[in-house]
Amino acid sequence: MKNLSYGKQFLLIGACFAGLGPIVGGMILWLILSPANLSLTGGQVFLAIVSTYIIAFVQAGSSVFHRIEHWSPLKAALAQLLSIYAVYTAAYLVNSWMPLKWEVVAIYTAIFVLVYAIIWIVVSVITKSVTKKLNKKITEQ
Amino acid sequence: MKIITKIDENAEERIEIYSHKRDALVEQIEELVSNYGVNINGFKDGEIAPLNAEGIYRIFVESNKVFASTDSGVYQIKNRLYQLEEMLGEQFIKVNQSSLVNKKQIKKFSSSWGSLIVELKNGETDYISRRQQKYVMERMGIK
After folding, report:
1. How far apart are CA B115 and CA B129, in angstroms?
2. Residue B59 phi/psi, 5° resolution?
């Protein structure tokens, strides 16, 4: 993995995790909707499986942005946010999981960015704690 | 701690440490011994200069070339980064894929956008990659 280019790493990580995507998607669908209530056409199921596959592929593959060491953390985080947002939004709209209305997309976007920001705040707090421990060690030595 | 020094031209040269625990003194002796006499050739303006490991702040890769920053400037090094990592041993910490920093030259750590930054005594900064974070913590004595 270490010697692979970032593009190849993206494809490899994406492919590994994408294999699990449709399985997870299928389980959620099965748990939420009882089989008796399922009324999906073959085309809809196929589209949902392909979409879940692509979502999992990009979600996992985009972690490679944080390995590009000449990118700043902010740039890597924005690239990851944009790539995940783009693929989720496209999948939701194509599958009609979300109606194409600006107010719905706006609320969805706000929630998406908010959750991403919360995750980054948690990461930031953890990093600050690590920084504190490291500086304490320096003063001890 | 007792010190016993024996001068014997015919004996194998070695240092053994007996200690109740691994502490800062033990680590400092190990560092001193492992880096004693480690000199790396640095190239600058067509001249070669022997660089002592103690005086190097950071070793980094830029445009596929390896450089070392010291008080007397930045020198190019002909060795590969992984070779230097092996040669320099305990005193240097690999903070990301393309940098080694001298543990003794670390001034402080800081954080920015969820990323860890290391600041050296000469003012240089470098970031600690996520992959190296656990390793850096271990090397700094945090379990």
Report:
1. 8
2. -120, 125
Please answer yes or no on whether A127 and B116 come within 8 Å at the CB atom.
yes
* Phi, psi for residue B111 in degrees, rounded to 5: -130, 150
Single-letter code of the amino acid located at A129: S
Backbone φ, ψ for residue B121 (5° rounding): -65, -20
pTM of the model: 0.62
Q: Which of B106, B130, B141 has the CB atom closest to A66's CB atom? A: B130
Q: Hey, how many other C-beta atoms are within 10 angstroms of the C-beta on B128?
A: 26
Cα B30 to Cα A46, A132, B23, B69, B99, distances in angstroms: 63, 26, 11, 24, 22
Chain A residues with beta carbon closer than 8 angstroms to that of B142: 133-134, 137
User: What is the ipTM score, two decimals?
Assistant: 0.71
Tokens 């660089």: give the residue.
Answer: B51
For residue B5, give the DSSP letter: -
The domains located in chain B, with CATH, are: 38-139 (2.40.50.1020)
Kindly report, residue by residue over B35-44, the tens digit of the pLDDT.
Answer: 666 678 899 9
